[in-house]
Structure formats: structure tokens, C-alpha cells
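A favour, since you know our C-alpha cells better than I do. Just paste the record in under my message, thanks.
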Amino acid sequence: MTRTKKSGMKSRGGRAAVIGALGLASVALAAGPAFAKGGVDITVPRTVQVGKTITVKAQGDDDSAGYLHQLCLEENGFGQGWHQESCSAAVEGDARVTAHGASARRGDLKFRAVLYGLTSPHDHNPVRLHASDVVTVHVR
């Protein structure tokens, strides 16, 4: 009789632990943030000659509902820090931007593309959604 009581207690305790763990896991999953899918791609030539045209293309998208998207290209070269080169118009879906330029001197130019979310075409507080990897163009 004692043996049955102990195994019955362990069985009830084990069930309670499993039920408690499942309940805690479901609360943790429900309370977690939802992540939107999206990203930014950028393409540049690896090397260019001094004075030749450099074409930088980028596209970005995010499935956040209710947002307009604007994609901006940024450049960092010759110790000047990051600055915006070009931005697309605010669009509802896939944002694309292309920039053309040339370098008058040798060295490395770094580019990145940044996707912003807007609430209207004239939104003064854009939200940064995604950024591309930094890509380098070697000017020789």
C-alpha cells in the first residue's frame, strides 16, 4: 500500500510539472515579439578605374503592414564618414534605388543601403527597418 501511494504521488507530481512547463512555454511564445520578414540587397562592381562610372544598385522590402518604404544609399570613402548619396521615392512595396558616380582618386569606397519605414510620403520620423552589408569598391 505504501508503494502504490508513492508511485501515485510521483505520477501526479510529474504530470503537474509537465502541464506547468507547457503552460509556461505557451505564455512565453505568445508574449514574444513578432518579426517581419524583409531585407536589403546591394550590388556594386568590385573594382573600377579612376574617373569611370560606378553604378550602385539596391533593392529592399519588408512585409510590415501599413508602411511605405524608402531606400537610401550611403557612402563612406576617403575618411569622410557615412553620408547619403541617393534615396528612392516612398513606395508601398519593393523599394529600388540606383546611383551613378565616379571617383577622381584611388582608394576604397564603401557603400551600404538602408531601408526606412514611413507612415506617409512626408514623414519626418522614418523608422530604420533593415540595412545591407557594407560593400567595398576598389578604385585603381
